[in-house]
From TrEMBL, chains A, B:
Family label: Belongs to the FPP/GGPP synthase family.
Species of the source: Haoranjiania flava
Matches recorded under Pfam families: polyprenyl_synt
GO MF term set: metal ion binding; prenyltransferase activity
Cofactor(s) of this protein: Mg(2+)
Protein's recorded name: Polyprenyl synthetase family protein
UniProt keywords, alphabetically: Magnesium, Metal-binding, Transferase
InterPro entries to which the protein is assigned, alphabetical: Isoprenoid_synthase_dom_sf, Polyprenyl_synt, Polyprenyl_synt_CS
Amino acid sequence: MHSFQQLVNIYAQKFNRQHFPAEPFNLYEPADYFLSIGGKRMRPVACLMANELFGDISENTWHAADALELFHNFTLLHDDVMDNSALRRGKQTVHVRNNMNTAILSGDAMLIGAYASLNKIEASCLQQVLTIFNKTAFEVCEGQQYDMDFESRTDVSLDEYLRMITLKTSVLLACSLQIGALLGGASKYNADHLYEYGKNLGIAFQLQDDYLDCYGNVEKFGKEIGGDIKRNKKTFLLIKALETAEGETREKLKAHLSSKDENKVAKILDVFDECGVKQWAEDLKKQYAAKALSHLEKVVVTADRKKQLYDFADYLLQRDY
Amino acid sequence: MHSFQQLVNIYAQKFNRQHFPAEPFNLYEPADYFLSIGGKRMRPVACLMANELFGDISENTWHAADALELFHNFTLLHDDVMDNSALRRGKQTVHVRNNMNTAILSGDAMLIGAYASLNKIEASCLQQVLTIFNKTAFEVCEGQQYDMDFESRTDVSLDEYLRMITLKTSVLLACSLQIGALLGGASKYNADHLYEYGKNLGIAFQLQDDYLDCYGNVEKFGKEIGGDIKRNKKTFLLIKALETAEGETREKLKAHLSSKDENKVAKILDVFDECGVKQWAEDLKKQYAAKALSHLEKVVVTADRKKQLYDFADYLLQRDY
């Protein structure tokens, strides 16, 4: 068995290669560029770890891992167009570096590439893996759609928000673990618990991401603090504040939201404090983290084999406040 | 066995339904809208006919047919964004009716839908079908990329052009026939000849489309005549004229190309006549049509079973000049 960090290193080395043909250059070079700008490769590594819980990593799992990473990058490539983001991991996005048409078509090719990787899986396992993968792929599109829909809505509930982040970011991590487990020989029972572990871990991670946008250490977070607040993004913190705030506090919050005051971030954080949002947010993240670990506990393998998945949860959720 | 026209009617009825869930509305409704605006469903019908050459239509083939039609519509949806086309079959395209982000994401969901249809094929045939499908899907993206690349080039050769239209439009028809044949129980020999029949038929059809843009009957063609010429589109007619024209004729052609004269179309058609482009184009189409039929002849089934595929070629290539 490998440690979490060993698998991160092994997978990064394996994946760091040219994935597409040389021609047509304007189709495939941007796809390879986008893959080369990195990322944590968390989904394929999760897939490999889930396989290793049950046995040696099979050839099938390496192919599934590549498919998951290609799919994830396809979604990022198209999301960057839809969100009009100029930078990804500090590098130019494809629609800025090349143009919008290239970002669309290279993304399409990357999605086809994900399916081409899946098709290297042995025939006896292929249909089962594709069923999980396709379901998840639809869900990720649905999550992106809800995220875009929410931009023009003012009545998004916390439940709706949680459902959106589950679809947009958590199910792909969950499905990575489930597929890796099944390809490693796991029972349905074990694979399903790993799915739930991944889903809840993914939700906790996304809640943390929203939290850090407000309360993070700017150097450790690597992004500007308060970006979501400035853009009035309906994160779970704002949704909670809007649900909680009453009377004068509510009026204040609404006034700050529509203001262009340069102290807007500090003022809204003050309202968050009045509503107890910070503590509530920390608690909510802990609830999802605990739920994730409770599913990991239920997986029927000897406790020592689970160490890498506990380390993985620590790694994802350790981020400094 | 069914006639070509019977299969067209049966498939249209089967396919004319809601393909996606009701929610999220802004993701799936545009996809169903786009599917509902019609089209000739030539690829799935070709797939069904190729199966019927060899035996009764299997459940697998119906699923493959749906996948091919969904894939074709996915490419149209994204191509309309890339080409900034406002109309498709006389109806608003999705990026105009909804918005660009919707066109991108609904197209993505449609591509995933194509793979979900393929995954209904029996496990024993799935990998073989996916291998052909994925290869073709990459090629269609490559064709679209070359088409876009050619817009900013002035030195496109006839061979490059033929390769572009082969990738962009012919290989999907070819692969539809090949997959249908294999799912109907055909040998590799027969399926390969049907692939070549479809590929050459597709090229002849596309050449005809370019030809009709210059020489068609406006009422029968259903589009404005000379649209390609007005936009200086590098069709095979213009490429041939640029390759052939010498001296004074060449200078005249270049001058007309850069002019905004309202008689531009007539003047360029005059140059085409001087270069013998019309006759050459008719001959080239006939060459590809003959090549297609020569491959159909080589398919080893009794001659009477092939009638529907001869009718299909007649239907595609019968269009009035």
